[in-house]
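We store amino acids, C-alpha cells; thus:
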Amino acid sequence: MRQALVLCIALAIGVSTLTAQRSDSEVKRDFEKGFKALMKDLREADSASIRSYAEKVAAFKNEFTEHRDFLNKSVYPDGFDETISKLEDQLKESQLIADSQGRIRDLESQVAELTGRIDAMSSENAMLLKQLDSLKGEVAELNAKVRRLQDNITKRDVAVFALVDSLFVQYDTQRLSTGDMRKLSSLEKNNVVGNIKRSVNDNIALLSSSGIEALDFPRMLDEQRKFEKNWKGVGKKLADAYVGAKDRAREITAVDTLISKWHSQVDEAFWKALNKVFTDEQVNVASVASGEELYNNILKFIDDEMSNAGNMDDAAREATFEKFAYNIWGAKLKPVWIPIMKRYEIFTDSQESEIDTKVKLWQSQVAPGNTLLYILVGALVIAVLVGLYLGMKKRPTTTA
C-alpha cells in the first residue's frame, strides 16, 4: 500500500513537470502568434475599427505580463518588452492614419458641397452667356442679365477659393501618409482645378459681352488682380494635392496662361472703357493706355484749354470745364477709377494731387469772379477776427 502511494506521488510529479514544460512552450507560441495577428490587423485597421484594436492590444499585454521574464528570455530577438513596444508603436501609427482618413472624409464632404454650388452657378453662367448674345436689341433686359452674370461669376470666384481654403487651412498635408495622399488625390474627380479654369474663361467671355457699363471695368480689373493673387498663393499646392504627377505641370501652365490672357484682356478693356468716358462727354483728352499717359494727357488737355481760353467765349469755356471737372474727374475718375489704379500702383497720390491743383487753377481762370468773391469774403472774415482780437486786447482790466 505504501509503495503504491509513493508510486502515485512520483507519477503526479512527473505529469506536473511535463505539463509545466508544455505550458511554457504554449505561452511562447501563443505570444508570438498573437503578436503577428495583431500587427497584421493594426496595419489594415480603419477609423471604424481602430478603437477595438486599442482594447485588444491592452488585453494582449495584460494577458502575457505574468510571463514577462520567461518571454524576455525565450522570444528572440525582442523578448516581451520590445515586442509589446513595437505593437504599441504600430497602434499609435494606425490611430494617426485612421484620424487622417476621418479628416479626408470630412474634406470630401466639404469639397462635394462646394463643388455642387460651383457647378450650379457655372450652369447658370453658361445659360446667361448664351442668352446675352440673343438680347442685344433689348437693352434694359440685357443690362439686368449682365448684372446677374457678373454677380454669379464673382460669387463663383469666392466659392472656388473658399474651397481652396477648406483644403489647405484645415489640415496639414505634411502629416498625411503616402497612402493618405493617394486617397486625397482621388478627389480630382471633383475637378477643383477645372473649376478655376472655367471661372477664368467665364470672366474672359464676360469682357466681350455687350451691356457692360464703363464704370463696371474698374471693379472687373480689381477682381482679376485678386483672383490672380489667390492663384499665385495656392495654385501649386492645389495642383500638388489634386492633379496627378504626370498632368501637374501641364495643368498649372494652362491656368497660368488663362490668367495671363485674362490679365491682358481686362487691362485692354479697362483702358478702352476709360477712353470712352472722355469721348462720351466730348472732352478731347488724348487716348491713354497707362496711368502715366492718363496723368500726362490730362495735364496737357488742361494746359491747352487754359492757353486757348482767349479764343473761346465764356459759355464754351465754362461748359468744357464743367464736363471735365464735374462730370468726369469729380464724378467718375476720382471716386471710381483712380482708387483702383492707385491700389495696383497704376496711379499715384502725387499725380492725383497735381491734377487737383491744375483743375483749381483752371477754375480760377474760367470763373475769376467767383475766385475774387472767395478772396473778398476771406479777407472780410480775417478783418473781423483781427478786429475782435484787438478789441479784446484793448479792453481795460478791472482791479479788485
